[in-house]
């Protein structure tokens, strides 16, 4: 049984902790963080009224904070202007911070296992300022293969990696990415209608498999790495090269299945 002295001591510690927390409160920052945390759990975004209801805040508080988050590009509006969702800015900021290193460290063993089994190279890309950045690359075990230089920027519009990244975004985020896009050297332009049709087909299939738009004899196979909300945070690609000698390597269909499994291991499912 607790003594009265012990109970008083425990209560005093608790009160002191509450006083310390109150002393350093930053209500505006708390509101902004509350909105970011709420939107991080929403696949299709929320209206302003839904955000107000979920957070128990009044209209003026939410309006001003949302406007600042939109202005700083942490949150984006839908094309109709009535829904708000997270942008990829927080993920982009993580490129400069150890969490990106942890993501790469977790991805490399999976990529290496794929490369050994499939006998093909693979690379991992993330969105970066209007195009894609290659953040990890693993060569296949053979004496030849195609590799993409680590740290390279590749096109958002005409590559399998870019099209998969675009396909698995909210409409608002996809529009923002396209607005930021600048052509890389040699990038093939696509009109808006053709691109929209391609992205719809990619979403239906769950991946993209197509002849490379950059190199003859290569079939690009790409799967999205999905975050908790179901949007792509990265693309995993293998530039498949078919053997034509007597050596029997894994087929394109087999390699596609292997890459699907690798991407699944790296995706952040809601149950995780």
TrEMBL record:
<feature type="domain" description="HTH iclR-type">
    <location>
        <begin position="26"/>
        <end position="88"/>
    </location>
</feature>
<dbReference type="InterPro" id="IPR029016">
    <property type="entry name" value="GAF-like_dom_sf"/>
</dbReference>
<dbReference type="Pfam" id="PF01614">
    <property type="entry name" value="IclR_C"/>
</dbReference>
<keyword id="KW-0804">Transcription</keyword>
<feature type="domain" description="IclR-ED">
    <location>
        <begin position="89"/>
        <end position="272"/>
    </location>
</feature>
<dbReference type="InterPro" id="IPR050707">
    <property type="entry name" value="HTH_MetabolicPath_Reg"/>
</dbReference>
<dbReference type="GO" id="GO:0003700">
    <property type="term" value="F:DNA-binding transcription factor activity"/>
</dbReference>
<keyword id="KW-0805">Transcription regulation</keyword>
<dbReference type="InterPro" id="IPR036388">
    <property type="entry name" value="WH-like_DNA-bd_sf"/>
</dbReference>
<dbReference type="Pfam" id="PF09339">
    <property type="entry name" value="HTH_IclR"/>
</dbReference>
<protein>
    <submittedName>
        <fullName>IclR family transcriptional regulator</fullName>
    </submittedName>
</protein>
<dbReference type="InterPro" id="IPR014757">
    <property type="entry name" value="Tscrpt_reg_IclR_C"/>
</dbReference>
<dbReference type="GO" id="GO:0045892">
    <property type="term" value="P:negative regulation of DNA-templated transcription"/>
</dbReference>
<dbReference type="InterPro" id="IPR005471">
    <property type="entry name" value="Tscrpt_reg_IclR_N"/>
</dbReference>
<dbReference type="InterPro" id="IPR036390">
    <property type="entry name" value="WH_DNA-bd_sf"/>
</dbReference>
<keyword id="KW-0238">DNA-binding</keyword>
<dbReference type="GO" id="GO:0003677">
    <property type="term" value="F:DNA binding"/>
</dbReference>
């Amino acid at each position: 049984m607790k003594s009265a002295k012990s109970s008083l001591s425990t209560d005093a510690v608790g009160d002191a902790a509450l006083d310390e927390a109150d002393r350093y409160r930053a209500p505006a920052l708390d509101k902004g963080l509350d909105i970011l945390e709420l939107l991080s759990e929403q696949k299709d975004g929320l209206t302003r009224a839904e955000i107000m209801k979920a957070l128990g805040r009044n209209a003026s508080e939410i309006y001003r904070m949302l406007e600042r988050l939109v202005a700083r590009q942490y949150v984006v509006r839908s094309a109709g202007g009535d829904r708000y969702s997270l942008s990829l800015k927080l993920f982009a900021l993580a490129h400069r911070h150890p969490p990106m290193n942890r993501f790469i460290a977790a991805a490399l063993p999976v990529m290496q296992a794929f490369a050994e089994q499939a006998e093909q190279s693979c690379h991992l890309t993330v969105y970066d300022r209007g195009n894609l950045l290659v953040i990890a690359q693993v060569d296949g075990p053979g004496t030849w293969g195609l590799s993409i230089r680590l740290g390279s920027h590749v096109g958002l519009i005409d590559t399998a990696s870019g099209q998969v990244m675009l396909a698995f975004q909210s409409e608002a985020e996809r529009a923002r990415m396209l607005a930021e896009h600048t052509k890389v050297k040699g990038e093939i332009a696509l009109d808006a209608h053709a691109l929209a049709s391609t992205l719809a087909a990619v979403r239906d299939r769950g991946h993209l498999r197509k002849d490379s738009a950059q190199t003859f004899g290569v079939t690009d196979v790409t799967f999205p790495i999905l975050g908790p909300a179901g949007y792509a945070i990265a693309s995993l690609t293998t530039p498949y090269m078919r053997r034509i000698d007597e050596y029997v390597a894994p087929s394109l269909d087999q390699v596609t299945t292997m890459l699907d499994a690798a991407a699944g291991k790296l995706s952040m499912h809601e149950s995780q």
